[in-house]
Every structure is written in C-alpha cells, then in structure tokens.
Amino acid sequence: MKLPIYMDNAATSPCDPRVVEAMLPYFTEKFGNAGSRNHSFGWAAEEAIDIARNQIASLIGANSKEIIFTSGATEANNLAIKGAAEMYAKKPAGETGRGHIITAQHEHKAVLDPVHRLKKMGFDVTLIAPGEDGVIYASMVEKELREDTILVSIMWANNEIGTINEIPKIGKLCKARNIIVHTDATQWVGKMPTDVERDNIDLLSMSAHKIYGPKGVGALYVRRRRPRVRLVAQLEGGGQERGYRSGTHNITGIVGLGKAAELCSQEMDQEGARLVKLRKKLEDTLESRLEVSQVNGHRDRRLPHLTNISFGFVEGEGLMMAVKDIACSSGSACTSASLEPSYVLKALGIGDELAHSSLRLSLGRFTKEEEVDYAIDNIMTGVEKLRTMSPLYDMHKEGIDISQIEWAAH
Ligand SMILES: Cc1ncc(COP(=O)(O)O)c(C=O)c1O
Questions:
Q1: Among this protein's residues, is 264 annotated catalytic?
Q2: Domain residues of the chain, as ranges?
Q3: Per-residue pLDDT tens digits for 353-387
Q4: Pocket, ligand 1, Cβ cutoff 6 A
Q5: Which of its termini does the chain have fewer beta carbons within 10 Å around, N or C?
Q6: Atom from ligand 1 closest to the CA of residue 333
Q7: Please, what's the b/e burial string for 342-372 (b: 16 or more CB within 10 A of its CB; e: otherwise)?
Q8: Any idea which fold 17-264 has?
Q9: Active site residue: 15, 174, 264, 334, which one?
Q10: pLDDT in tens, 153-164
C-alpha cells in the first residue's frame, strides 16, 4: 500500500484520469477563446462550453442557461450573496436597514465573510446556531424570517462534519414567502442526487475540485424561471456569462468540470453506496474499540464519504503526528493553518479540548477498503499510545469524573 493514505477528499479530490483526458485537447489544438466569434477555434471552444453547461445542468436538474461559470465555489458564493443582496436591497447604499439575511454560524468562510461584509454595508444579519447534531432544520430558519428578509443562505452539507441540512424544506418555506434561497452545495453536489427545480433552490454554488475535477473552476446556478433571479455582477469587463461574470472562459477547467459532473451523474449511486459502507466501518470500529470517542454531528443525516471523530484524552497535535501516514484534516482545510479550535465544532457545543483532538476523515472515489483498514489500525494504535501518556486518562480509568475536579490555581 502506498503511504500516506489520502483521506482528505473534502479538502480536495484528485482529478479523475477521464477528466484529465477530456481536458487535454483544450490546452493545445483546441485552445480557442469562446469569445472569438469569427473563426473555428472560437466556435470549438464555445461548443465545448455548451457541452459542459449541459453536463452540469443535468447533474443538478437545471436548464443549461442557468449555469454561470466561476473560478470556484468561493467566487460562486460571493456572486450569489453579494449579487443578490445588492440587487434586492430595500434601501440604497449608505443607509442602514437595507434588508435581512439569514445564514448559519458553521457555514464555510466563503459564505460567512461575504455576509459579514454585507453587514458592514447596512444589511441585517442573523446567524443561526446549530444544535449539537449540527443540522439546520427548516423550523430554525422559519423562526428567524422577517418581513424584510431578502436572502437565506444555508449550505446543503457541512464541509467539516458532513451533516446534511433540511434544504428542500427550507426551499419550500422561502418560496412561499418570495425569499431568495442560496445553498453552498460544494460538498453535496456530485455525491447526492440534486434537483434545484423540485427543491425550490434559487442559487446554488459548486466546485470542480471536490468532485474529481480540476481546481480553480466552479459554477453558480442562477434560477431563470419562477422566479427569474437577478444578481448584480461582482466582476465587470467583457460581459461573458450573460454579464454575470466577465473574464475569458477557463476552457480547460470548464471542460473538466463538465466531464466531472457527467461522471458523477453516471456513478454517484454505486459510488455513494460503496462509500457509506466504508465510512460506517471506519466510524463503527473506531467508536466501539476506542472508549471516549464520538462521531460529531448527526449520526444519519450525513454525506456518504465524510466523518469527523473526536478522541478524548489525546492532545490534538500529538494525534496529528501519530496519524501522519493518513492525510486527513484536524478541522476544515481552509482554517487548519491556525491553531484555533474549529469554529464548526465549537458551534455544535464541543469543548476546545475535544475539538482539538478531532479528525476529519473524508473518503473518495479512489479510496480502497484496505486503506480504511490501515487507517483504523493506525488511529487506534496512535490514540492508545497517546493515552498511555495522559494522567487525565489514568484518572478517568480510576473512575474520577474529570469535569468535577476543582484544579488549584497557583
Ligand atoms: C462548503 C464549501 N464551500 C466553499 C468552498 C470553497 O471552494 P473553492 O475552493 O472552489 O473556492 C469549500 C472548499 O473548501 C467548501 O467546502
């Protein structure tokens, strides 16, 4: 077996060789600019983009005209949130009370930061706190709705804990009140069946590199009918993508995203079933063999491939060292550069110690069962070894309730 084992597919996934193969001609012989309307190089690029648009639309139940290509989910989120807020603002820039926006505390920073900026620009913001299962239910959103609510942005599935929010119900709720619904579906699309029409989604963000496509390309779905959603462009220039996103098309990336989407449409069902089995093996074995360990977030409402497990009585950095043969994450890949405990786990009410000693393990298309077995052994050995060095674990074994101890401060 080749080490280290890759178990960080929620951070990014390898490109599927079939995706790379589809992309290759567009670096060399088919390198045209889709904006070149008067020669065959341009036409070939335009045709390739049309094909990709259809492949993506069919993955999420949209019309191809509703797909806007971006540089990834971060840009798609920014365009959706800032673009909708500006378009549907109730008062002009410079005033307060411009409209109310709802999101959740444990969203990705690519949603939270645009929302924070809008708050500074005069919008009111509600951040819903999840319960300990991490799920945002429609009832939680319903409680926060106001007369002036213009936008609800709730991710479909969480990138750190893999929990699935009640998006179809949230869509229905907002549709009935003419409120725009955006969902950051970066971790969901391509893994689970998606139908924006049935589920009343107005705006949906996705990214190629989470679904075995290349990095630096993504898409935003923008509803065109019932209702026709409009956005204020955040990048201006050549007017590509119906004026929503100027800039020469990243043709290789777009072809890659399209092919990746097509493969997901074809293989999602078998792939999901296989990954659920592997993930459950990982979770059940570790939880049953290692005491004081817990799977974070709702046990059933979760993505097939992603788990997040905390191990009591081990020190976080020690744990990462102990499992260095497994490429995984101790929090979101986007925030693990800092040593802050994960804000996602904190939002679920998980204490700092336990948050630090958690691992996010995300399996993928190329994960083999023997790798999962290796990871189980490796994590068990690592945790057990670290616990032999923990005086607190000794006390726990003696039956002392650590939480009741009053430590003397000198
Ligand atoms: C839920 C979620 N949203 C947005 C992003 C950002 O995606 P991208 O890297 O395509 O900008 C990520 C990736 O980490 C993610 O997991």
A1: no
A2: 5-9+268-398, 17-264
A3: 899 899 999 999 999 999 999 999 999 999 999 99
A4: 72-74, 108, 110, 155, 159, 184, 186-187, 207, 218, 334
A5: C
A6: 14
A7: bbbbebbebeeebbbbbbbbbbbbebeeebb
A8: Aspartate Aminotransferase; domain 2 (3.40.640)
A9: 334
A10: 999 999 999 999
Dihedral sign computed on CA atoms, order 58, 62, 63, 67? negative
How many A from CA of 207 to the centre of ligand 1? 7
Contacts of 240 (CB under 8 A, 6+ apart): 34, 35, 246, 247, 248, 249
Atom in ligand 1 nearest the alpha carbon of residue 208: 10
Nearest CA to ligand 1 atom 11: 74
Tell me whether residue 130 is exposed, middle or buried, using C-beta atoms within 10 angstroms of its C-beta: 0 to 12, 13 to 18, 19 or more.
buried
Q: Does pTM surpass 0.90? A: yes
pLDDT at 150 over 70: yes
pLDDT tens, residue by residue, 166-198? 999 999 999 999 999 999 999 999 999 999 999
Position 38 pLDDT exceeds 70: yes
CA distance 192 to 212: 15
Topology of domain 5-9+268-398, CATH: Aspartate Aminotransferase, domain 1 (3.90.1150)
Tokens 């069902």: give the residue.
269
Distances (CA, A) of 80 to 64, 76, 195, 229: 17, 6, 18, 10
